[in-house]
Amino acid sequence: MTQTITVIRGDGIGPEIMDATLHVLDSMNLGLQYEFADAGLVALEKHGELLPQATLDSIRKNRIALKSPLTTPVGEGFSSINVELRKRFDLYANVRPAKSFPNTKSRFADGVDLITVRENTEGAYIGEGQALSEDGETAVLTQKVTRRGSERIVRYAFELARRTGRKKVTVVHKANILKSTSGLFLKTARAVAAEYPDIECNEMIVDNTCMQLVMRPEQFDIIVTTNLFGDIISDLCAGLVGGLGLAPGANIGADAAIFEAVHGTAPDIAGQGKANPCALLLGAAQMLDHLGECEKAERLRAAIVATLEAKDSLTPDLGGTGNTMSFAKAIASRI
Ligand code: ATP
């Protein structure tokens, strides 16, 4: 493989977990070239803007980026750099795996292995038409769902199922109450599902989904849903399997894809070598899958599991006494 990827080292614990992740990727001799680009607080300090044109150009050219968490300072133009990146590159699919790992403080030590596929560009989450009346008594928001937006995300979920050998897609909605928006999503999902007779499709109302996830998460394989429901459900799933330190995410569009850790910049532990690099490493594994290097992605995941099983050099959040880089080295040694 010869592939150049854009690497954004980020803010807070970002540079530490990125260095650790690149150490592991380097140990795999993947033939990856890194093009470093700035975004967030670092970019504001160096270039006077949060999302420099050079960074956008780099992502556009390479089509693949590995990104650490970013700080978006209040009052600097964007409400969130991550949301801005999704918009700029039309990254319509937010893909978040949640899998049980050994020796983690999780409710489900095994049995959870699911992926949430969240629509990333429309619905209530994007805050379209937000307004507060002059007297501050009434707030409104437009919630727009389109057939095109629904179709492409549901199709992504079914294609992902086929590609990864998964057997079931659960369409999560609230069409019984939100008859127009969630109704259109569900109707569109049914039409797409009919094209995939080899994949089981079931439908579940979002509130029941939350209860089912907490009680019997092993029944889920791939969940596909709209933006706001997906935002909530994917964090719930991260909580089922041990929290944010182990939760990766991908934002995927037709022309670009950005892979990341789901957690933030963790300013409380930044610069102390305490950050767990696993979420970003698992994001890198998703990137390898996306690049068609599925066997290498599996090897990386297996090395993470083996290191957790051996309790070798784990970071303090996992109850260990290791640090970010010693943990990464322990993982690299098992690949
Ligand atoms: P931000 O404002 O960037 O979202 P935050 O601190 O509000 O930052 P997170 O960064 O997600 O939110 O952190 C939430 C908690 O989880 C913090 O206590 C943080 O130290 C911890 N945490 C987050 N990521 C990691 C990690 N990779 N390793 C260890 N602890 C982490």
From TrEMBL:
EC numbers, comma separated: 1.1.1.41
This protein's UniProt keywords: Oxidoreductase
PROSITE patterns documented for this protein: IDH_IMDH (PS00470)
Coiled coil: none
Disulfide bond is among the record's keywords: no
Family statement drawn from the similarity comment of this UniProt entry: Belongs to the isocitrate and isopropylmalate dehydrogenases family.
Pfam family, one: Iso_dh
A GO term for molecular function: isocitrate dehydrogenase (NAD+) activity
Domain of life, source organism: Bacteria
The keyword 4Fe-4S is assigned to this record: no
Sequence ranges assigned to domain Isopropylmalate dehydrogenase-like in this UniProt record: 4-331
Protein name as catalogued: Isocitrate dehydrogenase
Organism: Lysobacter arvi
